[in-house]
User: Which sequence fits this backbone?
């Protein structure tokens, strides 16, 4: 077997004008251009793009034009590009098909699932097999076995075998709790040395079946909570003994995100605005995107609408954008509970009042503490209505102590 090397990338999301900014669309193009520059410099034998080349199934003309120009540079350098569908660039329907098809027909990419046997071979080096994305687990469990039956994978023990997919595999080491795992482990064929995966935006590498399972991660920040992930691709070297050496390569072009998460429980909206404005001033940086994430509970009388979002957004002088994420919760009691108190029979008033007080105090204290304070508040109702001032004073003194 001959030694060779390749580049494995995924989740480029070309065409994503994040926050409605044309500059952000260009950022995703810039990351792709950097990957291609470095692929050519590395003299890679081929490139694998494991899905989500585009952010939308129908990219804009400018995104398509830029992508064609960039792919042509790889074609001119005699570097084939092997692709599979991602959940974003999957064909919207069977009639229109995916935009990857015309790119394949133009010879700019080799779209694996479209070709006979869903595979590509480099003589004396490797066998590469790729499957489409089916979006959901139910559809995958239904359609993937059929696809594998129609296009039986035939890994060759004399060369390196690569399996390309865009999906989350149902493994504890791979699947975050908030993501559905589309593919059960037993649906993925054995006999491959390298499983080139996409879809998970955080890069990872682990032993899987008889080879490596590698998620290359995203190439730009698609969501602010992914800002901490390293952006890049894998450069994979394979020697004559079929020994695989994947190396994570970081990109220099991705836009810097500054995410500031802060707890503001108990502060009113005006105070929160002042604090966040100062935080943004301190974080101001040339060309950065600043994301203040505001968490906590507002006082009962306060409202999120009182926040001066305009002042927060306009504070930075050097940043590209300030985009506040307001996760503050208003400490209000639902109308249903208030209405139920007044509509209840007298014997239910104490129960409803207890629920009312517990909900109020839960915004500031633990559940057990909230219930304790609710009991004290409830004990004040009777002496207050009967004007027993001494009893009221006694209860309050006990509470204070």
Assistant:
């Amino acid at each position: 077997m001959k030694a060779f090397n390749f580049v494995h990338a995924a989740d480029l999301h070309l065409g994503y004008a994040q926050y409605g900014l044309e500059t952000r669309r260009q950022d995703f193009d810039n990351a792709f251009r950097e990957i291609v520059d470095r692929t050519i410099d590395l003299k890679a034998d081929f490139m694998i793009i494991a899905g989500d080349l585009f952010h939308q199934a129908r990219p804009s003309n400018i995104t398509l034009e830029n992508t064609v120009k960039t792919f042509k540079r790889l074609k001119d350098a005699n570097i084939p590009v092997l692709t599979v569908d991602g959940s974003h660039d999957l064909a919207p329907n069977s009639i229109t098909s995916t935009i990857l098809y015309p790119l394949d027909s133009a010879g700019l990419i080799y779209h694996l699932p479209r070709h006979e046997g869903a595979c590509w071979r480099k003589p004396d080096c490797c066998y590469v097999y790729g499957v489409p994305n089916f979006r959901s687990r139910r559809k995958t469990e239904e359609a993937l076995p059929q696809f594998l039956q129609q296009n039986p994978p035939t890994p060759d023990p004399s060369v390196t075998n690569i399996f390309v997919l865009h999906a989350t595999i149902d493994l504890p080491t791979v699947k975050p709790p908030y993501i559905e795992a589309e593919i059960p482990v037993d649906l993925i064929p054995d006999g491959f040395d390298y499983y080139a995966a996409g879809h998970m935006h955080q890069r990872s590498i682990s032993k899987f079946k008889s080879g490596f399972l590698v998620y290359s991660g995203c190439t730009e920040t698609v969501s602010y909570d992914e800002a901490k992930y390293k952006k890049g691709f894998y450069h994979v070297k394979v020697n004559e003994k079929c020994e695989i050496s994947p190396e994570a390569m970081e990109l220099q072009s991705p836009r810097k995100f500054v995410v500031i998460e802060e707890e503001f429980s108990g502060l009113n909206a005006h105070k929160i605005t002042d604090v966040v404005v100062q935080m943004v001033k301190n974080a101001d940086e040339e060309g950065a995107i600043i994301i203040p994430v505001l968490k906590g509970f507002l006082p009962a009388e306060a409202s999120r609408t009182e926040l001066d979002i305009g002042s927060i957004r306009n504070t930075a002088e050097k940043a590209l954008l300030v985009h506040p994420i307001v996760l503050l919760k208003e400490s209000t009691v639902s109308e249903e509970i208030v209405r139920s108190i007044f509509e209840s029979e007298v014997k239910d008033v104490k129960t409803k009042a207890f629920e009312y007080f517990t909900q109020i105090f839960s915004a500031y204290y633990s559940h057990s503490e909230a219930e304790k304070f609710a009991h004290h508040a409830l004990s004040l109702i009777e002496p207050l209505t009967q004007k027993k001032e001494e009893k009221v004073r006694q209860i309050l003194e006990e509470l204070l102590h």
